[in-house]
Design goal:
With about 375 residues, the chain is an alpha/beta fold. It folds into 2 domains: about 80 residues, Winged helix-like DNA-binding domain superfamily/Winged helix DNA-binding domain (Arc Repressor Mutant, subunit A, Orthogonal Bundle), CATH 1.10.10.10; about 240 residues, D-Maltodextrin-Binding Protein, domain 2 (3-Layer(aba) Sandwich). About 40% of the residues lie in helices and about 20% in strands. It has 14 helices and 12 strands. The strands form 3 sheets. Strands 3, 4, 5, 6, 9, 10, 11 and 12 form an 8-stranded mixed beta sheet that branches. Strands 1-2 form a two-stranded antiparallel sheet. A two-stranded parallel sheet has the order 7-8. Helix 5 crosses helix 14 and helix 10 crosses helix 11. The longest helix is centred in the first third of the chain and has 24 residues.
């Protein structure tokens, strides 16, 4: 950790010691501080921040009371190390349960429903998983699904509702193993073709017909018997910093010289949608600053905006909400699960297909924002 990672805002309403404690927690959450790492000495940090030493000491004592750090005699202040001691592990689980329980009780008493809480939990946890990912995701090595009969392999477009579905199915079936690879919608169909996935998540707009998914399935998987399970309709739009400081109002604004865009990877359904819109507007990708910068998920582009690395991106409303940035809704699209019929009828996929039609899944997704589950679970065959 660099001392420069700890910053404060002298004009903030939050007390300085609270700001320091919050920064330390964030650094630990993002794995920039790890168990056993030392915090800067009190005197050194106070001098760097130009504040009283007692303020830093108060922050460290606050963190020690929470058992986030431990002060060692002549050893400085150290991030609490993980332990294999059963008693310590039991105490950590007890404290986690107590903290989560208290927070749930607090928000329930404020009138939020269990579905509200569960949806926001999924969104926030998804954000932190993305934050903690030190490097961009890379495609999984090719695996023949016939050789791995215990793991459901999903390849395709990133989607928050799909993540919720997977978490719910695994929660209800403790032995269930599911692996998701974000390779874009076209990548998902190709993985089906090459027997590297049990199912693909896609949202591909056909420019000629204006129809979602079916034309692409017919082109990429000709003659293949597949089930098309509708996951949800979702809203795509422009994501930008809170308050919309660049006054972005439409797709045409992407070519403005003062705006930096961040894109999705080739083969992603969002990239296909963007390119169609640019062609309709007569805008060349070369006119868009940042068009060549590609990220694999809606959360990754959302966090890029949240961190000030880009001004705008095309993405889904749930990701914008998760990243706490603003969103301008523009398009309604269809997200489907493409499943070869042999896989659709298998015992392996039964828990996942049961979860997709459950009332709990639809209720949580509805609360996540930007989704319509009125047709969720509807299935057709090609």
């Amino acid at each position: 950790m660099n001392i420069e990672d700890l910053q404060i805002d002298q004009h903030s309403k939050n007390p300085l010691h609270v700001q320091i404690a919050d920064h330390v927690r964030n650094l630990i959450a993002m794995e920039k501080l790890n168990p056993g790492d030392h915090l800067p000495p009190v005197r050194q940090l106070a001098k760097y921040l130009n504040i009283n030493q007692n303020t830093v000491l108060r922050a460290y004592l606050f963190l020690e009371q929470e058992k986030v750090v431990v002060a060692r005699k002549r050893g400085g202040t150290v991030v609490t190390a993980r332990s294999d001691d059963p008693n310590i592990l039991l105490e950590r689980r007890r404290r986690l349960s107590e903290m989560v329980g208290n927070d749930i009780l607090k928000v329930l008493s404020m009138g939020y429903s269990p579905e509200d809480i569960e949806a926001d939990f999924y969104l926030q946890l998804a954000r932190w998983r993305e934050e903690r990912q030190a490097t961009p995701s890379t495609p999984e090595a090719a695996v023949d699904i016939a050789q791995d009969k215990d793991t459901i392999r999903i390849v395709g477009s990133h989607d928050m509702a799909l993540n919720i579905l997977v978490d719910l199915a695994m929660r209800e079936n403790k032995k269930l193993k599911i692996q998701i690879t974000h390779a874009g919608s076209l990548g998902g169909l190709i993985a089906i073709q090459e027997e590297r996935a049990h199912l693909a998540g896609i949202h591909l707009l056909d420019e000629e017909t204006g129809e979602y998914n079916y034309p692409f399935v017919k082109r990429v998987l000709p003659g293949r018997e597949v089930a098309i399970v509708h996951l949800a309709y979702r809203i795509q739009g422009l994501m930008f910093a809170s308050g919309n400081p660049k006054h972005i109002k439409e797709i045409a604004d992407l070519k403005r010289p003062d705006i930096t865009f961040v894109n999705r990877q080739q083969g992603a359904g969002t990239r296909v949608l963007l390119d169609i819109q640019l062609r309709h507007l007569g805008i060349s990708p070369k006119e868009i600053r940042g068009y060549q910068r590609e990220l694999d998920t809606h959360l990754a582009v959302g966090l890029s905006i949240a961190h000030g690395e880009a001004d705008v991106a095309l993405g889904i409303e749930a990701a914008a909400r998760s990243c706490k940035i603003d969103f301008l809704p523009l398009f309604r699209e269809r997200y489907d699960l493409i499943i070869p019929v042999s896989n659709y009828r298998s015992e392996l996929l039964a828990p996942l297909l049961h979860a997709v039609v459950s009332d709990e899944f639809k209720a949580v997704v509805d609360k996540a924002g930007g989704y319509d589950t009125s047709q969720t679970g509807a299935t057709s065959f090609l």
